[in-house]
Structure formats: C-alpha cells, structure tokens
Design a protein that fits this description.
single chain; Immunoglobulin-like; 7-stranded antiparallel β-sheet
Length: about 170
Amino acid sequence: MLKALTTISIVFMTQASAIAQAPGSSYEIVADGGRKVGIARLTEAPRGLLIRVETTGLTPGWHGMHIHSVATCADAGFKASGGHVHDSATASVHGLLSASETDLGDLPNIYAGPDGKAVAEVFAPNVALGGGTGRLNLLDADGSALIIHASPDDHTSQPIGGAGARVACAAIR
C-alpha cells in the first residue's frame, strides 16, 4: 500500500528584526487611538515600490490594504487620510480585477493568522517615494497613508472593494 504524504508549509515571520533589516524607509503602523501595532517599510525599486508590512492586533483572516491620499492617522477611523491615491486626471475607479481600475493605491489583501499577526510583502508598480519617476509620488505636499481595513477587498466593488472600516494606519511623509 502506497502512502502519500503532502506537506504544506506556511511560514509567518514574527520577528520585527526581519522587517527592520530591509532597506528603505520605515513608517509606524498605529491602531485607532495611536497605539503602535506594527511597521511598514517602503523601498524604492526601479519600476515601483516594495512594501513590507508587519502588524499585530488584527482579527484573523484577510484584510484589504490600500494607499490613501493624505498622511494622517490622528483621527478616529482614519477618515482624514482621504480616498485612495489615483491619477488626478481621471475619476477614481477601484479594483485590481477591474478593467477600468485607476486607483494607484490598490494593493493585494494581507492575511492575519489566528494570533492576529500579519507579515506581508507586496509590490506597487504605480507609486514612488519621490518625483521624476513617471509614477505617482507618495511624498507630495500632504503625503500619503497606508491603510489596513477590517475586511478583505474583493478587488471589484466600488468604492473600496467591500473592505470595510479602516483599522490600522501608517502616515507616509
């Protein structure tokens, strides 16, 4: 009798040092009330921005993540961070799966394990940490914010893919 063994390994990095040692600029992630819950490290790449996130305190499961237009995380619910960054010459259309998508701040979902920790690395090809790259500059006059939502993004529904409340925020300035 032949026995088949299938092993699926999922590795969740839980050490902050893994993020802290990567090149780039670090931004503190906070929950409502200003409590630090993680760190985001943004690293400029030749054709986009590499974003590494490590956070705690999320509900287990998938969470939408987007780049919003204003670098503020001081208000309740992070509403002052505005909508998603997008090309100001066009109307904002959300959704990585939408053929009409124009939100340059749309990002893949992140997953929080049973302990509420999430570690992710995503690539954003439409944004930059400076001007002159042909990509949207996140470090403009009012900066930007990396927002983590309470629910997953379906990548099609308007205006935010059903991602729900804003539960964590990192001011990018």
